[in-house]
Amino acid sequence: MMHSTTSSKDHSRLRVRPWAILLWLAVWQAASAALDQQLLLASPISVLFRLFSLVRTLPFWESLLFSFVRICAGFLGAVCLGVLLAALSVRFLKVSELLAPLMLAIKAIPVASFIILVLIWIPSRNLSVFISFLMVLPVIYTNVLDGIRATDKDLLEMARVFSLSPFRTVRYIYVSQVMPFFRSACTISLGLCWKSGIAAEVIGIPDGSIGENLYQAKIYLNTPDLFAWTLVIVLISLVFEKLFLALLDWGFKRLERM
């Protein structure tokens, strides 16, 4: 698992280039034309036309809002609880020992198994909230815990020498030391929460969700719809990731200036 932010050089390697996107779209179009079967592989043009048709309808935006609110709620809840549990685990050894098997079990058990088990207890409308929360929690907890434990001991000793209050120690030492670990955890979790949340909706089929639309497209063999909704998931996931990380970086820079 990744425990720190990548270097700027690594970021440049992973940056998506427009020419690469256009090339893969051309490959997709060529493969679709070669098969000549929209049922098996819809062309990017037909998918875009279908997407433009969907965005002009009210049910599309209602489904988007339904899934967005629930998956984001699960992600934010896991972030808050993960940070809190990590702090408690560092402070109290018994908490760390108690949570270790739980976090290991969550990471080891397949998402589909969790979805089916949880569906027995939770209404399908709220299933994506809990599944997103469950998949993100161990990632945030583990990375933040490692970040706290990796904090420079010399800095902590200096804080004790100068009698810094616990609040100032957290603000001026722990936040800057843990932030790379926390940001990395969020980067990993943002994609994971959408994958798991949408998977939960496809299995639970709550009314008015993106997952329901994917399921209906599969049932009726509507390949353009299937690709269009998949594209929507990718785009909304990327937009949310960029906005959240930008807000996180902005907040951290503001805190450093204070």
Q: Could you give a short description of this structure?
A:
With about 260 residues, the chain is an all-alpha fold. It has helices at about 10-15, 20-35, 45-55, 60-90, 95-110, 110-120, 125-150, 155-160, 165-205, 210-220, 225-255. About 80% of the residues lie in helices and about 0% in strands.
Labels describing this entry:
elongated; 0% strand; mainly alpha; MetI-like fold; 258 residues
Description:
- By secondary structure, the chain is mainly alpha-helical.
- The protein has one domain (48-257): MetI-like (MetI-like fold, Orthogonal Bundle).
- 81% of the residues lie in helices and 0% in strands.
- The chain contains 11 helices and no strands.
- α4 (58-91) packs antiparallel against α5, α7 runs antiparallel to α9 (166-204) and α9 (166-204) runs parallel beside α10.
- The longest helix has 39 residues, at 166-204.
- The radius of gyration is 22 Å and the shape is elongated.
- It starts with 7 loop residues before the first helix and ends with a helix.
- The model is unreliable at 1-12 (pLDDT under 50).
How far apart the termini lie comes to 33 Å
Record field, number of beta strands: 0
- CATH superfamily, by name, is MetI-like
Mean pLDDT: 86
Structural class: mainly alpha
Helix content: over 70%
User: What is the second-level CATH architecture?
Assistant: Orthogonal Bundle
Order of helices and strands: HHHHHHHHHHH
Roughly what fraction of the amino acids lie in strands?
under 5%
Q: What is the count of distinct domains?
A: 1
Task: Catalogue the unreliable spans.
Answer: 1-12
CATH classification, class level: Mainly Alpha
Radius of gyration: 22 Å
Gross morphology is elongated
Question: Main sheet, how many strands, which sense, barrel?
Answer: none
Please work out how many helical segments DSSP would assign.
11
CATH topology: MetI-like fold
